[in-house]
Amino acid sequence: MREKQALTTGEVAKYCGVNFRTVIRWIERGHLDAYKLPGRGDNRIPVDSFVDFLNNNNMPIPEELDLGGHKLVLLADVDDLSADVAACVRRAGWDLMVTSDPVHFGWLISQHQPAAVAITQMQYEVSVNRLLKDSDAKDVLRICISPGGVSDTAARDGWIHLSWPTDQPQFVLQLTNNVAA
């Protein structure tokens, strides 16, 4: 559970790597929800609103503000498909780690114990299954995404196969259902 319920403009600025005056402009323009303290009138940004702001702008959520949010590790080539999937994952409120290197992918899984993994190349299914079994992470959501391929939401060997962008709503549904689980 988070200790803080609200942040100062300076704290938000530090998390985002901007000047605190930029944060004040975001508040004034309605991009970021805040309230003013009685007396001096300092702004306070509710942590939930800030996390929503970060998600909506595809920005990473600092670990200390994450409510144990779900993590997804994506193994994909750097292309439009991976950028699309990444944006979708962040909009769904998940923390995302992306790599195009299978060895780094395995390392990310072992270090971060994600709730879900996604790949864009079917040839990695067997090795990822073995890796998850070896790391005792059998209940990890596994999604294989292919551009314009055949979708098959029935899990085979633990994998759900989705076609992108056609099955994007199904992808979000899978993530949402996994959050509720």
UniProtKB/TrEMBL annotation:
<dbReference type="GO" id="GO:0003677">
    <property type="term" value="F:DNA binding"/>
</dbReference>
<dbReference type="InterPro" id="IPR010093">
    <property type="entry name" value="SinI_DNA-bd"/>
</dbReference>
<dbReference type="Pfam" id="PF12728">
    <property type="entry name" value="HTH_17"/>
</dbReference>
<dbReference type="InterPro" id="IPR009061">
    <property type="entry name" value="DNA-bd_dom_put_sf"/>
</dbReference>
<dbReference type="InterPro" id="IPR041657">
    <property type="entry name" value="HTH_17"/>
</dbReference>
<feature type="domain" description="Helix-turn-helix">
    <location>
        <begin position="7"/>
        <end position="57"/>
    </location>
</feature>
<protein>
    <recommendedName>
        <fullName>Helix-turn-helix domain-containing protein</fullName>
    </recommendedName>
</protein>
